[in-house]
Each structure stands twice: as structure tokens, then as C-alpha cells.
Write a structure and sequence with these properties.
The complex is a heterodimer of chains A (751) and B (154). By secondary structure, chain A is of the alpha+beta class. Chain A is 28% helix and 24% strand. Chain A has three domains: 224 residues, Aldehyde oxidase/xanthine dehydrogenase, molybdopterin binding domain (Aldehyde Oxidoreductase, domain 4, 2-Layer Sandwich), CATH 3.30.365; 157 residues, Aldehyde oxidase/xanthine dehydrogenase, molybdopterin binding domain (Aldehyde Oxidoreductase, domain 4, 2-Layer Sandwich), CATH 3.30.365.10; 306 residues, Aldehyde Oxidoreductase, domain 4. In chain A, α2 runs parallel beside α5, α5 crosses α6 and α17 packs across α18. In chain A, 57% of the residues are buried. By secondary structure, chain B is α+β, with helices and mostly antiparallel strands. Chain B has two domains: 76 residues, Beta-grasp domain (Ubiquitin-like (UB roll)), CATH 3.10.20.30; 75 residues, [2Fe-2S]-binding domain (DNA polymerase, domain 1, Orthogonal Bundle), CATH 1.10.150. Chain B has six helices and five strands; from the N terminus they run ββαβββααααα. Chain B is globular, with a radius of gyration of 15 Å. The chains are: A alpha+beta (751), B alpha+beta (154). At the A-B interface, α8 and α17 of A face α1, α3, α4, α5 and α6 of B.
């Protein structure tokens, strides 16, 4: 598990802290995610993460994690990786989210970073080219792409931990005049067993700070792990059971005001006029602020602001955007797909020839609708722009530094004049990533809170209502995908022809793991004004539904069992095969089920983790669907915290199940038709199937876990529905379909 | 308008509109932010508190309707449960089962479940399904169920 990519660079720095102690910093470049990072990072397509480890005089190791914990357990998992390599005593380990500061570049910011401790001298005056480059990239601190553990953890945390241990050992060896190879680190101490000498990390810290960290420290062998791989309680949980956890929405500042917005419902519409005088007379209302797509009311209590915003009568100019609907968007998809061959995604062999030679041609068109994220904590952002030109921001963000940069942009301030206080996130799922120039340019609560704060001489907390959240999100896009596959006389796919709207991140989402000699996969653009953004698992959420449902169609066309059909085509993919077989075995694939019950299977690799899911459903004679059981098999390489792994897989499945059963944002007269949970329905306790999670630790490179369990569930359930009813679901969500079983099993639905 | 309410054993006299929902009185007037805003229409349960021991969604409960009643929020749950420790048994079970993920819905979840368990200390799965309709977007439901059963079997 070395750093394999030679273009990745790691920088290590170490120094003493005032009053004793040691600080070790690590920064490295990383792989890009196509849109977010290439564009943000000035075309260099790399990201930097900063990791800090601090040993205090009381021998406590504090791990600063440069990622947001949205409940995925990343702060604990990353601390485990650092502590493991450092040989720290877990009872002496703390972990916190790193503040949104460019610790490398600026002394005063660095001081804040280390909680007021004096900045180590080695961090001052750092101005060589390499360091400046790091500073430049520090504008990004993104939590997304299931990247935290497999990237920051694998490289930043492990390497920093190992380097820290190495410093401690060298310091001890020097003090005792022995060879470092005779010293070992155990439980936050270094021991020289031959003489019986030992010293705590804290005791050695001042000496260690004099030494240069090794840039290539020896990492532990996985078989020697004592912390990683154990189910360890998360640091963040106690505050989440007694009401003390502070999310962005919970910020309270003396003199703070509250803002609520009434948006123009139509995307692309503008406010013409509104009843300002009347609204200003309402109790507690202080000010109205006109925004590009709505009007904000500022009041002394959020409820007063919200009620006043609801009482606003906006006259709007729809700018001709009010004829748009889901039907016109889909019609545009069809038109754009028919008009051009699009941009190359995959071209292998000769798909056209393969289609011509096929014994049987199978064609299908699949669609998914827009989806909102619906984080439980409604979007919010608190901004205070002070008279001295400095600003403070309180928000739960998946990218605190990027958010800080965005506030500075919108406020017209320099980055350094903005201080951002990262708060807990009540859900993220891709929603709490800030807008950036050239990418993902949808006006968000970050922009609006800043625009409002510019007009108010006090801290202002903007909170979205749930209706705002559902109707003004950056949505998982509506997508159409058209398949044409030629089967040979034995039912095996000879050619795979797929055209879809439109290209999204990650690039490989529409690729197939199956052995098909001729493939042509291309994407066509079909822009609309409906804002789009990353949604848990991003483009995998749609393409896995398409591909794995269509694979099921092919299996049935070929007269094969869907599990066996996939199995035969995954012969050259041993990890996929093992995951597929484990899921089938644990689910009892092929064993008898009660009447009306059926199973469906699907598999997907996403963010380097392979997940197969088998869903067991029943459909009543009147078409009522129930998902009884989901068995998931997962190969994520290796588990850091097994408890978190299980939790994230359950979480991903339930998130995807909500989308499959109920999820639909539809557009009507240019606006979102849904508004709150009654019409944007969620899976609740009574709908949750029994979920079993089985993990294969293949030892492959670490895969992500926050997202990969989400994609397969829609196809697994839809395939089970087909097996139970004979009805093939080619458009999500399932609630829109009459699932009354056809009498003839395996008959194609008449649509 | 002046209204007096008793929250976690402490009386507060407030000058607010009588129809202001209890949720916003707790959060913005009293600074008790453990009770969360989720939907504003009593659909998701994030704002669940106890009114005279009964699980109640505070976002649609006018403050005037809870005058002279015993209001308990997540901040007062341990004390109200008579726990000698800092945590009520249900909170300890939530930690033992590692229930929360993002954690935002968990105050409401804990208040809803604690009210259920007071009434029915050993609920069946079907009874849990019927009583606990709170929304959790992280999907902690399997762990919530496990934690309830761990308390039932304690």
C-alpha cells in the first residue's frame, strides 16, 4: 500500500510547540474529480490536503482531520489510521475537524489552527516554491468522492503518523545513545527493552522537534494493526445524544438576526416588485433584501422572518421559463439523443458490426428524475460582515475552505479577511459543497447569506425552510439512457451500444465491468436551467440503475438466471466475481421463497469499492410492494472501522431505497412541483428492510464507503419487482408504476 | 403578549406572539438548540419534545397551548428520566449501539422513543414501526431498532 502514483507529492514538516509538545504536518496532492477539482485548481487537476498531528505535554495525541464528518465517521477513522502508525495509546487520542485555515501559508492563521499555541518557527517565513504551491491549493478541503479514508487517511494520516513515530524513536535513541533500531514505540511511549528505559512521546517531543521528519517513513504491515480494523466508538457520538452537538443552524451570536427567503419558484425567473411596506410593518421585521431569485426578510427571530417571507407577494417575470416541465425536459433529451452521436466515453472494438452480426437485438430506454438531497438539517449559513471589512462565517460545509473563498468572492473581500467556523453538518450527501466559478454555479445559501449580510449591520443567520430546500436545491440530474445490445446465439452480449444524457462525474459511471468485445458508450449534452449538483454516489446513482436493470433484461432475453448470467461475464474480474457470489450465497439465491416474493441482484464498483446487493421483495396481488431484506457484499480493500463500514453500507442502501421507491422531483410550469416530506417522501422505520452486510477484505487499494452502497439498490429492487410481477421498471421511482403482477411470469411489460 | 412556560423544570416568561410555535421559542428565544427544525409541518419529527410526558412535534405547537404544562427537551431528558448519571439509559444505549450518524434527527428520535418506552417498555417491531415515524436521512433506523430492543431486554 505504497503511494503508487509518482505524480503525487508529500510534504512533511515537524516542530516543537511552546510549553513542550510536537506538531507534525503533512500535505499532499491527490487525484482529481473531474469537474470540481480541475477547474478549481487552476487547471492543475490536483488537490492538497493538510494533516496535522499534535502531541501535547500531557501525552495526548490530537489529530486534526481536514474533512467534514457528516456522520460517516471519518474523523474517528482517520485518527485511527494516524494513531495506528504512530503506535499511540488509543485512550490518549483526540480528533477534531481542522479549521478552515491555510495553516501553511500564514503565521497568524497557523496560530489559530493550533488553538492558540505559538506557531512553530519552522512554519514562519516559508516561502519556497513548493510551499506556495501548497498554499494555493489549500483553497480546497473537500469531503466528497468517498475520498477521505482512501486518500487523506491512506497517505496523509498514515505517513504523518509513521513519521511522528520515527521522530520519537530517533529522539529517544539519541538521548539514550543507542541505535534507533533497538528502540520500539508502544502505547505512546518509546522503549529500549535491552536497558528497560522508556519515555513518553510528550517527554521526547522537544527533542523530536529538533529532528527532520523522514519523507518516506516505514509504514506498518496490516497484520500488525492493533487499532485499525477494530470496531471503535466514534468521537462525535456523545454530543449527538444530549443535544449539545452544534450544527450550523444552532449558531448563536449576541445581536444576531435571522433571515428567511421567498424564492421565485420558476428557475430563471426574476422578481419585478413586492409588497415591501406591508412586510416591514410585521412584528420583528427589520429589513428586506432583494436577491437575484427572491426576496429575503430579516427579523429578530426565525419564525417571524419565515412568516413574513411567506406573506411576501412577489410579482415575477418568468423570462419565458415557465413552460418547462419534466415532459419537455425528457422530450429534449430524446431530441438531443436522436440528433447527435455525442462525445466519446468508451469505444472498444466495432459495436456497429457487432450489432449487425447479433442473433438477437435488445433495446431499451431508461430514465431517472431529478432528486433533491433533503438533508435533515435545512440549509443555512450565518455571516457577519463587520464595519472593519472583516467577515465571519458559521456553516457546516463539505468544503470549508472553498466555502470561505466563495464568501470572500461574493462579499468582495479578500480570502484572509474571512474567518470560517466549521460547524457540524446535519447531512451532506453532496449538497453542502460550495459554488465555484466555472463549476456548479447555482446560487446557494452561502451566496444569499453573504448578500444579505452585506446589507445588515449584525450577524445574520439565513435558514432555508424545508420548502426552500426541496425547491431550490442543486439536483441529481434527470437522465435518459438508451441501450442497444446485440446477443449472440448463446445469449452473450456481442456489442454494447449506449447513448445517454449527459456526462457527469465520475467519468467511469457508465462503464461496464462485463466482458463485451465491442462497446460504444457516448454521452450527449442536453442543458436546462434546473440546477444540478453532486448527489450521493453522483452519476453512479443513475447509471447503475440503468446498466444493472438492462443486464437483467439481457439475462431474461438469453433465458439465463440473472446471477449466473453476470457471473459468466465477470470471469476476468475476480473481485467483482467474489462480491457477486458472496451476496448471492448469503442471500440464498435460488432457494425457495414465499409466494409473491422474489429476489433481484445488482453489482457496481464505485469509488474503488465493489458492492453487490440482493433485494428480496414481495408484491401483493393489488400491486403493493414491500422490500423485506437486502443482503450486501462489499469489497472495500480493507476496513478501518468495521462498525462504521456496516453503518455506511446500511445508510447508503436506505438513501438509495428512498430514491428508488419514492424519489422524484418533477418540473411543472418551470418550477419544482414538490415541496416538503409529504410529497417528497422518505423511507421511515416501517419501510426499512432487514439489511445484512458482508465484507471481503481483499487487500486491494482502499475504497470509499460513504457512497458505493447507494447505486445498486434501485436495480436490485427493480429486478426483484420484475421477477415478482413480470413488469420491467425502466423509469424511477417505483411509486409511479402499477405493480399488479402480470399473470404470465417473465412476460415483458406492455409499455 | 406575555406567556409563561416551564421547560426542563424552569419557568420562563416571554414576550412573544401566542401562536409562535414552541420550536422557535425553544431555539431562538431560550437558546435550547438541541430541539431541531426539520420540516415545519410535523412531518419529520426532528422537533419532538415531551409535553406532560407525551411525544409532541414542537414545530406546530403554539406556545400558548403549552402554558402550565411540563415541557421536556433533549437537554432535560436525563434529569427528567430520573437518571443519576449525566445520561438517561436511552442515551447510553444510543452510544452503546453507536446509533447516530450526522446526528441531526437524533434529538427528536430519542424523545420519540423515550416516550414510547415509557408507555410500552417492550415494544414489538410492529409497535416500533407504528410509533416511530421520525425521518432519518442517514438511515440509522436499523440501529435505532437495535437500541430499542437492547433497552427492552435490559
Amino acid at each position: 500500500m505504497d503511494i503508487k502514483n509518482p505524480t503525487r507529492r508529500g510534504l512533511l514538516i515537524a516542530g516543537g510547540l511552546a510549553g513542550g509538545g510536537l506538531l507534525i504536518g503533512y500535505a499532499a496532492s491527490g487525484p482529481s474529480r473531474r469537474h470540481q477539482l480541475d477547474k478549481v485548481a487552476s487547471g492543475e487537476g490536483e488537490r492538497f490536503v493538510a494533516t496535522w498531528l499534535k502531541i501535547s505535554p500531557d501525552n495526548v495525541l490530537t489529530v486534526y482531520v481536514p474533512h467534514a464528518d457528516m456522520g460517516q465517521g471519518v474523523i474517528t477513522a482517520l485518527a485511527m489510521m494516524a494513531a495506528e502508525e504512530m503506535e499511540a495509546d488509543w485512550s490518549l487520542v483526540k480528533a477534531v475537524q481542522a479549521p478552515a485555515e491555510q495553516a501553511f501559508a500564514n503565521e497568524s492563521l497557523g496560530q489559530r489552527f493550533t488553538e492558540g499555541l505559538q506557531i512553530p518557527s519552522m512554519l514562519t517565513g516559508v516561502n519556497d516554491a513548493a510551499w506556495l504551491k501548497v498554499a494555493k491549493f489549500m483553497h480546497i478541503q473537500l469531503t466528497g468522492g468517498s475520498s477521505s479514508v482512501r486518500w487523506t487517511g491512506q497517505h496523509g494520516m498514515r505517513v504523518a503518523g509513521a513519521a511522528a513515530k520515527d521522530l520519537m524513536i530517533r529522539a529517544a535513541a539519541r538521548r539514550w545513545s543507542v541505535d534507533p533500531s533497538q528502540c520500539v514505540a508502544r502505547l505512546s511511549h518509546v522503549h529500549h527493552d535491552a536497558s528497560g528505559k522508556s519515555a513518553s512521546f510528550a517527554d521526547l517531543a522537544t527533542d523530536a522537534a529538533e529532528l527532520s521528519p523522514s519523507s518516506n517513513p516505514l509504514l506498518k504491515n496490516a497484520k500488525d494493526y492493533t487499532i485499525v480494523g477494530k470496531p471503535i466508538p466514534r468521537f462525535d457520538i456523545p454530543a449527538k445524544v444530549d443535544g449539545t452537538a452544534k450544527y450550523g443552524i444552532d449558531v448563536q451570536i449576541a445581536g444576531m438576526l435571522y433571515a428567511a427567503i421567498q424564492f421565485v419558484p420558476v428557475f430563471g425567473a426574476e422578481v419585478v416588485s413586492y409588497n415591501e411596506a406591508e412586510i416591514l410593518k410585521r412584528p420583528g421585521v427589520r429589513k428586506l433584501v432583494r436577491l437575484p431569485s427572491g426576496v429575503a426578510v430579516v427579523a429578530d427571530n426565525f419564525w417571524r422572518a419565515k412568516e413574513a417571507a411567506a406573506a411576501l407577494e412577489l410579482k415575477i417575470d418568468a423570462k419565458g421559463n415557465d413552460a418547462r416541465s419534466s415532459a419537455t425536459i425528457y422530450a429534449q433529451h430524446d431530441k438531443d439523443l436522436a440528433a447527435g452521436d455525442g462525445a466519446k466515453d468508451v469505444e472498444i472494438g466495432d459495436a456497429d458490426a457487432g450489432l449487425k452480426d447479433a442473433a438477437k437485438l435488445v433495446e431499451a430506454t431508461y430514465r431517472v428524475p431529478y432528486l433533491a438531497h433533503a438533508c435533515m438539517e435545512p440549509m443555512n449559513c450565518t455571516v457577519w460582515i463587520k464595519s472593519d471589512g472583516k467577515a465571519e462565517v458559521w456553516v457546516g460545509a463539505q468544503d470549508p475552505l472553498g466555502t470561505r473563498a466563495r464568501v470572500a468572492d461574493v462579499a468582495g473581500l479578500s480570502f484572509d479577511d474571512v474567518t470560517l467556523h466549521p460547524m457540524l453538518l446535519g447531512g451532506g450527501f453532496g449538497r453542502r459543497i460550495p459554488v465555484r466559478k466555472g463549476f456548479f454555479e447555482f446560487p446557494s445559501e452561502i451566496d444569499f447569506a453573504t448578500l444579505i449580510a452585506k446589507e445588515v449591520d449584525a450577524p445574520v443567520k439565513l435558514v432555508y425552510t424545508r420548502e426552500n430546500d426541496i425547491q431550490h436545491d442543486a439536483y441529481r440530474p434527470a437522465v435518459t439512457s438508451v441501450f442497444k445490445v446485440g446477443l449472440d446465439k448463446d445469449g452473450r452480449p456481442l456489442a454494447w451500444h449506449n447513448r445517454y444524457v449527459s456526462k457527469d462525474d465520475p467519468e467511469e459511471a457508465a462503464h461496464i465491468p462485463y466482458a463485451v468485445a465491442n462497446q460504444s458508450i457516448r454521452s450527449v449534452e442536453s442543458p436546462t436551467l434546473v440546477p444540478r449538483g453532486p448527489w450521493r454516489s453522483v452519476a453512479h446513482s443513475q447509471h447503475t440503475f440503468f446498466i444493472e436493470s438492462f443486464m437483467d433484461e439481457l439475462a431474461h432475453e438469453a433465458g439465463k438466471d440473472p446471477f449466473e448470467y453476470r457471473r459468466a461475464l465477470l470471469k476476468d474480474q475476480p473481485r467483482h466475481l467474489a462480491v457477486l457470489e458472496l451476496a448471492a450465497e448469503k442471500a440464498g439465491w435460488g432457494t425457495p421463497l414465499p409466494k409473491g416474493h422474489a429476489r433481484g441482484i445488482a453489482i457496481q464498483e464505485a469509488f474503488k469499492t465493489i458492492v453487490a446487493e440482493v433485494a428480496e421483495v414481495s408484491v401483493s396481488p393489488s400491486g403493493e410492494l414491500k422490500v423485506h431484506r437486502v443482503v450486501a457484499a462489499v469489497d472495500c480493500g480493507r476496513m478501518i472501522n468495521p462498525d462504521t463500514v456496516e453503518q455506511q453500507v446500511e445508510s447508503g442502501i436506505i438513501y438509495g431505497l428512498t430514491a428508488a421507491l419514492h424519489g422524484e422531483i418533477s418540473i411543472d410550469k418551470g418550477a419544482v412541483a414538490q415541496s416538503n416530506f409529504p410529497d417528497y417522501e422518505m423511507v421511515r422505520m416501517a419501510d426499512v428492510p432487514a439489511i445484512e452486510v458482508h465484507v471481503i477484505e481483499s487487500g486491494a487499494a482502499l475504497g470509499g464507503l460513504g457512497e458505493p452502497a447507494t447505486p445498486p439498490i434501485a436495480a436490485a429492487v427493480a429486478n426483484a419487482v420484475f421477477a415478482a410481477t413480470g413488469k420491467r421498471i425502466r423509469e424511477m421511482p417505483l411509486k409511479n408504476h402499477d405493480l399488479t403482477p402480470l399473470t404470465a411470469k417473465f412476460a415483458q411489460a406492455a409499455d | 403578549m406575555s406567556v409563561t412556560i416551564k421547560v426542563n423544570g424552569v419557568s420562563h416568561t416571554l414576550d412573544v406572539e401566542l401562536e409562535m410555535p414552541l420550536l422557535w421559542v425553544l431555539r431562538d428565544e431560550l437558546g435550547l438548540t438541541g430541539t431541531k427544525f426539520g420540516c415545519g409541518i410535523a412531518s419529520c419529527g426532528a422537533c419532538t419534545v415531551h409535553i406532560d410526558g407525551e411525544a409532541t412535534r414542537a414545530c406546530v405547537t403554539p406556545v400558548v397551548s403549552v402554558e402550565n404544562r411540563e415541557i421536556v427537551t433533549i437537554e432535560g431528558l436525563a434529569e427528567a428520566s430520573g437518571a443519576k448519571a449525566a445520561l438517561a439509559p436511552i442515551q447510553a444505549a444510543w452510544i452503546a449501539e453507536q446509533v447516530p450518524q450526522c446526528g441531526y434527527c437524533q434529538s427528536g428520535m430519542l424523545m420519540a422513543v423515550s416516550a414510547l418506552l415509557k408507555e410500552n417498555p417492550k415494544p414489538t417491531d410492529a409497535e416500533i414501526d407504528e410509533a416511530i415515524t421520525n425521518v432519518c436521512r442517514c438511515g440509522t433506523y436499523p440501529r435505532v431498532r437495535a437500541a430499542i430492543h437492547s433497552l427492552s431486554n435490559a
